[in-house]
Write the structure tokens for this entry.
Amino acid sequence: MRFENDTIAAISTPVGQGGIGIVRISGPQAIAIADRIFRPKKAGSPSTARSGSLLYGHSINPADNAVMDEVLVSVMRAPRSYTKEDVVEINCHGGMISVKRTLEAVLTQGARLADPGEFTKRAFLNGRINLTQAEAVSDIIVAKTEESMRLALEQLRGGLSEKLGDIREKLIETGALAEAYIDFPEDDIETDSWLRIRSRLEGIKKEIDDLSGTFQEARFFRDGLSAAIVGRPNVGKSSLLNLLLKKERAIVTPLPGTTRDLIEDYLNINGLPIRIMDTAGIRNSDEIVEKEGIRRSLNAIDTADYVMALVDGSEPLGEEDLQLIELIRGKNAVLLINKSDLPSRISLAALRESGKELLPVSALTGKGIEELKSHIFQSNLRNWNEEREGVVVTNIRHKTALDMTSASLERAIGLLSENQPLEFFSIELREALDSLGEITGIVTADDILDKIFSTFCIGK
């Protein structure tokens, strides 16, 4: 059973060789445990050190007092620490053995191994950060580009929670006005008052809808834009992937069907992280392994945010090319005419019938690659600009809660328009406030917290 007043510990740096490895301890016994496994080089100990002190000495095994490593110990006393609890960080030499032995010694002295994200969860539960800021910590860790990092830092600084706080205050003020009429039913509600309440709610709903509307594009910076390169065998898909990534990521041979499985990597275009996928060539095949690869290619077309359909411009369109064009109808896709460095034998008229934009490229010479990158960015981020101002929503949980808030306000506005009893209106307003509160953690449930923090790494 887990208790919030347990002392927890975990390795907070990646496992493996490195310059430093950190074992983090948090909780009421953190400093006492550090006393028992640390031998200072000079006078002093964690229990006598001031908050923010850094002590030099050795970690020792309490079982036999044997020296385990030469370490630096950081002491951060509550409430001036990451978790607002007593926190000790033992800085060991980087390496699997040193940090593992140190953690084991800490656990023998009464700490338990932290759950994923438990340090940040405690920071939230102890009031140091709100829930959106806690989620931003995870976003910072997994940020793949500078723009992803900027958006996560903006959320960590409280940009989103501040915006939501302003909206919440407006809702509370509007609700208070309605509650006053409920408490004093003998007072008639003037028409101007009705119109004023409705107008304010419509303005608040627009703010919420505008904020929710930023998700479709902003989410790409958090999760990455998934882009699939598809086409029949031997049209240059793997060569295009290698050219975009500027490294030999996929095997390229003259033999059709070389790629049998999805190959994924990340590409950065103007700060937008692209999860780019090279797929198996799409054709009719009875070979078991190739059929599975083709099935995954077809699935990539269905699930990708953006599709690059590749055809060979040096050959006439074949039946497999025509099938591919049909597969990408209704998708966010571009038709790439590869091998544009060779004489063209392809029917442009047939390609134009697809309704997709045509881009000539050459995976051999690099022709058209910069135009392709620009198309990827512009076709997926039509409303984005590099100097964008204002708060955006990058988390599906936040968007879902905003949409629920908007739906409650829509019903509340409808009740006002129909002159329904104010008690019903007040219920919808409270529902809206609860949905809004779920985003920052003002209103939340244990299962929501468990789901959020389970995605964190252990040690954070």
The two ends are 20 Å apart (CA to CA). Residues 159-183 form the longest helix (25 residues). Confidence is low (pLDDT under 50) at residues 255-260. Residues 222-380 form a domain with the Rossmann fold fold (CATH 3.40.50.300).
